[in-house]
Design a protein that fits this description.
The chain is an alpha+beta fold. The chain has seven helices and 16 strands. The chain folds into three domains: about 70 residues, RNA-binding S4 domain (Structural Genomics Hypothetical 15.5 Kd Protein In mrcA-pckA Intergenic Region, Chain A, Roll); about 90 residues, Pseudouridine synthase; about 130 residues, Pseudouridine synthase (2-Layer Sandwich), CATH 3.30.2350.10. A hairpin with a 2-residue loop joins strand 2 and strand 3. It is globular and about 65 Å long.
Length: about 300
């Protein structure tokens, strides 16, 4: 077959172009992908693209003949164990939305050497609906907390638009090494994706995070409530490191060498705690996700007070 024009699905909104090809054309090597991009055989909406180009639902990707590299659809059979596990993550469900409390360490989508992920087990959450739910946003593999799923196309479109325009207020909880001064404020620092990290640079994209200290353990640790007003990759992690308060358990954003604390878990202490869906529902609806055990244990060890 010849050149294809493929429209980006709602579920892939925000995905990097290289990960999109990894998902749909797993036989395409990185080297060949880069060559096709350099020679403009791959384009997004008719324009030259880079491997890290962020896709938006509805955009059109020009794909050269890659029949041999296409993914062969697999018939997924969800085990009873995985079905029970996935259904046990549900903290809210109605005819349009499912909200999960995702555990730390479980990826939302597949990638290199990632075979078990939320996207691969969505059939377990179909329940009485005509189709399985759709991903409409993502949170980092090591971040725990709220992950929303749409149960139909109309809701998927609404949620995708809302996440893109940042009209659904989100609140995260983070346990940090160090206490910010002042104890409430705004971090306004542009972020640029460099390698696998987002870094503050003059050339970066606008990034704004509101924060407030809930409680402290001396000057060494703080429980912080953070609300991102923009949606940059790893925004809260990068911003808290930038103000000198990296998140406990963060292998990537803890200076040159992450510190380990004997009484605390090595897991990332960043939790997507609350999301306000009131604007979407035209009535008050706020969903909260209980803290994971490792986070609560660390707070108890430090004597930090937090009432869920």
């Amino acid at each position: 077959m010849g050149v294809e024009i493929v429209k980006v699905k709602t579920v892939d909104d925000g995905m990097r172009l290289n990960r999109w090809f990894l998902k749909y054309y797993p036989g395409l090597g990185i080297g060949r992908l880069q060559k096709l991009l350099r020679t403009k055989q791959i384009k997004v909406d008719g324009k030259k693209a880079e491997s890290n180009t962020r896709l938006e639902a509805g955009q059109e990707i020009r794909v050269p003949p890659l029949d041999n590299e296409k993914q062969v659809p697999e018939v997924r059979v969800i085990s009873a164990k995985d079905r029970d596990f996935m259904q046990g993550l549900v903290i809210f469900k109605d005819q349009n939305i499912i909200a999960l409390n995702k555990p730390s360490g479980l990826a939302v989508q597949g990638g290199s050497n990632t075979y078990r992920h939320i996207d691969g087990m969505l059939e377990a959450l179909q329940f009485e609906a005509a189709e399985k739910p759709r991903l409409v946003h993502r949170i980092d593999k090591d971040t725990s907390g709220i992950l929303l799923l749409a149960r139909n196309r109309q809701t998927a479109d609404l949620l995708t638009k809302a996440f893109r325009e940042h009209t659904l207020p989100k609140t995260y909880l983070a346990l940090t090494a160090g206490c910010p001064k002042p104890q409430a404020g705004e971090v306004k620092a542009p972020l640029e994706k460099i390698g696998e990290k987002s870094q503050v640079t003059a050339e970066g994209k606008k990034a704004v995070t509101l924060y407030r200290v809930i409680d402290v353990a001396g000057e060494k640790f703080a429980l912080i409530e953070a609300s991102p007003l923009t949606g940059r990759t790893h925004q809260i992690r990068a911003h808290l490191e930038y103000i000198g308060c990296p998140i406990v358990g963060d292998d990537r954003y803890f200076g040159a060498e992450r510190k380990r604390f004997a009484s605390l878990s090595d897991k990332l202490h960043l939790h997507a705690y609350k999301i306000d869906l009131s604007r979407l529902y035209n009535k008050k609806l706020i969903i909260t996700a209980p803290l994971p055990a490792h986070f609560k244990d660390s707070l108890n060890a430090l004597g930090i007070n937090f009432k869920e």
